[in-house]
Amino acid sequence: MNEGLVGGCLCGAIRYRIEGQPMFVSQCCCKDCQKATGTGHTTIIGIHKDQLKMEGEPATFTNTGDTGGKVTRHFCGTCGGRLYTSGDAPGDHIMVQAGSLDDPGQVSPENCIYVKDRLSWDRLDESLPHFPGLPPRPGILD
Ligand SMILES: [Zn+2]
Ligand SMILES: [Zn+2]
């Protein structure tokens, strides 16, 4: 019954579909996510890049991530809606913004990462595993 995860930007110019199951869902508290989303943390869905089928051409912004690699954030050039992040992850993995799903309730975070940057007023689920940076084994390394 489940056709997979579908989503898009706020204005609807860009749509996407995720084929297959996500590898992980995390709450990321890193400083760059705070700046890029204007929130305390962002919820990301880790998938292989081939799982993402896009309609429309996102704008991009690239900077250097925490591990020294290039990180590119993809967003709608019209409405600014954040879509996904590529780079700075092992292999060909990308992180889709869970809030851009048509039904974000379809996924549920399994851990919290970069909690070293967490803000005191930003509440997270304390029952989930917390990691200061990336998880020791993100589950995407092999
Ligand atoms: Zn848009
Ligand atoms: Zn982050």
TrEMBL record:
CENP-V/GFA domain: residues covered: 5-122
Coiled coil start-end: none
Entries under Pfam families matching the protein: GFA
Organism expressing this protein natively: Croceibacterium salegens
Entry GO MF terms: carbon-sulfur lyase activity; metal ion binding
Name the UniProt record assigns to this protein: Gfa-like protein
Stored InterPro entries: CENP-V/GFA, Mss4-like_sf
Signal peptide feature range: none
Keyword flag Zinc: yes
Keywords: Lyase, Metal-binding, Zinc
Annotated family: Belongs to the Gfa family.
